[in-house]
Structure formats: C-alpha cells, structure tokens
Specification:
By secondary structure, the protein is of the alpha+beta class. Helices cover 41% and strands 23% of the residues. Helix 1 packs across helix 3 and helix 4 packs antiparallel against helix 5. The longest helix is centred in the N-terminal third of the chain and has 16 residues.
Length: 191
Amino acid sequence: MQDIVDCLTRVAEALNARHVRWALGASMLLYCHGIVPRANDLDIVALPEDMPLLDAALSGLSARGGRLPPSPSPGFATRFFYEYEIGGVFVDAMAGLVVRHTAGETAYTLRPETVTEYPLNGVVVPLSPLEDWYALYLLMGREEKARLLEAYFRAHGADRALLAAWLDNSTPLPEAVRERIKTAISAAGEG
C-alpha cells in the first residue's frame, strides 16, 4: 500500500500545484475512509476544462512520459478518460464520466462544492463524496462495493441530500438503482 500512497501524494502535489479541480474516487476513496483494507490503483475525477492541465501534470510524472494507449470499455461513454502509470501504480483520470446501463446513460460531473479535504503526507487530497460513488457503483453493477458503502452509511451516516440528488427525475436510473438509493437514504444515519 505504501507505493499507492506515495503515488497519490505525488499526484496530489502535481495537480494542486497546477490548480486542477479534481477529486479522488473509487477504491482509494474507500481506503481513505477505512472501508476497504487496500486499493490497487487510483481513480481521479476532474472538471472537463481542467483536463489539459491534469494531462500535463500526470504525463510529467508518468514513467512512459505520457498517457497509456486508450482501452475503451463498452459500459462507459466518458468524454475524457486517460490512463497513466506512475511509480508502478496505474492512475485513471476522467472527466465527463458517463455510465451506460439498462435505463440509458447517466452522466457524472464533479461538483467542487461537494469535495472534502483529506490530509496525506502534508498534502491535501480532495475526496469525492462517498454518496456519489455509491450511486456510480450501483450503476456499474459493482455490488460488493455498493454493499460496503451501505454498511458504512448505516454506521457513520450519509449526506441524504447528496443521495437524493441522484433521484432527480432528469437523471436516468434503472428502477432497481432508484429503489436502492431510496433505501439507503432511509437507512443512513445523519452524516
């Protein structure tokens, strides 16, 4: 885990120095909250207009001097998706994330006002809301991670407003996902 923590520290320093609006997501986000014992890679969400700055910063850290070749996934229609290898750790950076599912496509855009700060080795790491990753994991079919977050919300609370934002009628969601989010809102303690 030390390699990935060191990598995250370097990435955070580089992105913060360039004033990139970004946040950590996925498994490393769960690790920072003590939900999972380890993470294998880094997933970063940024604003689309900040992707040139992000790319310059991460390409400068990359062992290959730039991005890895694209590896498209049929489950996503993300506007920007870049992959890097930094210090032996794979780093995925995205903006304009779009998840394809049975009810259509759902877009996720980082909202800087919902980001929290996590101190790591003297550097600030912005964290995405767990509530957003819960909905995203449901949409991606990552059941194990969704259940871990449900348990975390029951024990530690959740921001019900962030969860409820996913239920906006303009957001296409499969009905099963919509019901899981409603249940999570009801079951979550105050966050």
